[in-house]
Amino acid sequence: MIKCETELRCGSKGVAVSCAIPKTAIWKPPFSGSRAALESAVILSLLKQRRRRRLRARPFPKEWLKLVQHHVVFFRRLSGGDRAELLGHIQVFLAEKRFEGCGGFAITDEVRVTIAAQACLLLLHRETDYFPGLLTILVYPLTYMAEEKRQIGEHVWQEGTVGRLGETGRRMGSLVLAWGAVKHGAADPSDAKNVVLHEFAHQLDYENHAGDGVPA
């Protein structure tokens, strides 16, 4: 409220009257900062979805298709609709994920496409955000060695070096694979030891932050 003095004249006498005039309030929407952040997130999500639709709609490169047909045996067993869906997912996956070679290993289209085809098999017939916690796939030529610490007793821990074919973690932001195991799993899907499916299934599990063995 603001104060003012207003003079009212009655006949020959002037009477000073004090009055209160309400000050105009400036309305601010509650949580304006949160609303702006939410609107920005929605816009970014819509743009991401539009970009992904465009990637899925692109003609699949013929060279990549030959690699999938040659290296990934299960592709031949899919229906026409599933093949088309898988190829679309591969295009998005390869546009968004980075590959790095380790131990002197060179990353080629053969490596990228063979891994992507197996990983994206897990995305068929489901709403997906394309493994959002994963940024980089690290590829070794063969079995690689890693330091490991494990508990073997109540207060006893054992440290050592172990050979691995793949690994990932909830907070790693990366996934590690041995190319030899990748090729073997792609060529023989019935051996129940596909390292790509195994590690990327962990990534699906991490999407709901539970890590409980049930994909999001």
What does this structure look like?
This protein is an alpha/beta fold and 216 residues long. The protein has one domain (59-216): Cyclin A, domain 1, CATH 1.10.472. It has six helices and eight strands; from the N terminus they run E-E-H-H-H-E-H-E-E-E-E-E-H-H. The protein has helices at 32-57, 62-71, 80-96, 109-120, 179-187, 195-206, and strands spanning 2-10, 13-21, 98-101, 136-140, 144-151, 157-164, 166-168, 174-178. The strands form three sheets. Strands 3-4-8-7 form a four-stranded mixed beta sheet. A two-stranded antiparallel ribbon has the order 1-2. Strand 5 (144-151) and strand 6 (157-164) form a beta hairpin. Helix 1 packs across helix 3 (80-96) and helix 2 crosses helix 4 (109-120). Residues 1-21 have low confidence and may be disordered.
Structural descriptors:
6 helices, single chain, 4-stranded mixed β-sheet, Cyclin A, domain 1, 216 residues, two-stranded antiparallel sheet, alpha/beta
In brief:
This protein has 216 residues and is an alpha/beta fold. The chain contains 6 helices and 8 strands, in the order ββαααβαβββββαα.
Q: What is CATH's topology name?
A: Cyclin A, domain 1
**The CATH C-level class name:** Mainly Alpha
- Count of β-strands: 8
Tell me about the largest β-sheet: 4 strands, mixed
Any idea what the CATH architecture is?
Orthogonal Bundle
Helical segment tally?
Answer: 6
